[in-house]
Amino acid sequence: MFEPVPVGDMLTPMKPITGRSANVVVLAALVAAGCGPDGPVELPRVLPGPSPVEYPVELWDLGLEGETTIMVLVNEAGSVDSVFVDRGSGFEDFDSAAVRGGRQMRFSPGRRGDNRVSVWVRVPVRFEKGEREGSVGAPGSGS
Predict the structure, then answer these.
(1) 129 within domain boundaries
(2) 132 domain residue, yes or no
(3) Which of the four pLDDT bands, split at 50, 70 and 90, describes residue 132?
(4) Are 41 and 119 in contact (CB under 8 A)?
(5) Are 123 and 70 in contact (CB under 8 A)?
(6) Distance in angstroms (rounded) separating the CA atoms of residues 83 and 116
(7) Count of domains in the chain?
(8) Which are the contacts of 127, defined by CB distance < 8 A and separation ≥ 6?
(9) Is the pLDDT of residue 18 over 60?
(10) For the segment 104-120, what is each residue's pLDDT rounded down to a tens digit?
(11) Are 30 and 10 in contact (CB under 8 A)?
(12) Using an 8 Å Cβ cutoff, are 118 and 81 in contact?
């Protein structure tokens, strides 16, 4: 699903998540410890399925767009333990929608060798009104 690409000291898998209600591009980047004594960390992978991120209806109606970057802590089971806004969009409703969606995301766990590990990943969420690949679609559009 993801093919990690080295970017500085981080790995960045670059594949969109597609779903019936929205698309979210997830650019997961290892934040904390990329390599340790037991070798590099294999990043968590987003499990396929509908995007949990919903475009706020009020902002859609106003024609507003934006991008919020969230940080997601993926635990050893692949569940989300914590989410916070890393870089806000300038619109509280976009930021809140991104955090709510981030809490509902599901991942395969990160690994270091044969061991599952908790890993922070960076997830940019684009709210765009156009039909561009990788953006959150219209509210209730089923796209």
Answers:
(1) no
(2) no
(3) low
(4) yes
(5) yes
(6) 20
(7) 1
(8) 55, 56, 59, 64, 65, 66, 67, 68, 89, 94, 97, 135, 136
(9) no
(10) 999 999 999 999 999 99
(11) yes
(12) yes
**CB 83 within 8 Å of CB 71:** yes
Please, are residues 45 and 2 in contact by the beta-carbon 8 Å criterion? yes
Looking at residue 56, its amino acid is P
CB 28 within 8 A of CB 105: no
Q: Is pLDDT above 90 for 33? A: no
Residue of 37 and 73 predicted with greater confidence: 73
In one-letter notation, the amino acid at residue 6 is P
The encoded tokens of residue 56 equal 């706020």
Instruction: Give the CATH number of the domain where residue 115 resides.
Output: 3.30.2420
The string of pLDDT tens digits covering residues 117-131 is: 999 999 999 999 876
pTM of the model: 0.70
> How big is the chain, counted in residues?
143
pLDDT confidence of residue 16? 34
In-domain check, residue 22: yes
Sheet with 110-112, strands from edge to edge, namely 35-36, 39-42, 110-112, 115-117
Helical spans, DSSP H, in 42-115:
57-61, 92-104
How many angstroms separate the CA atoms of 77 and 107, rounded? 8
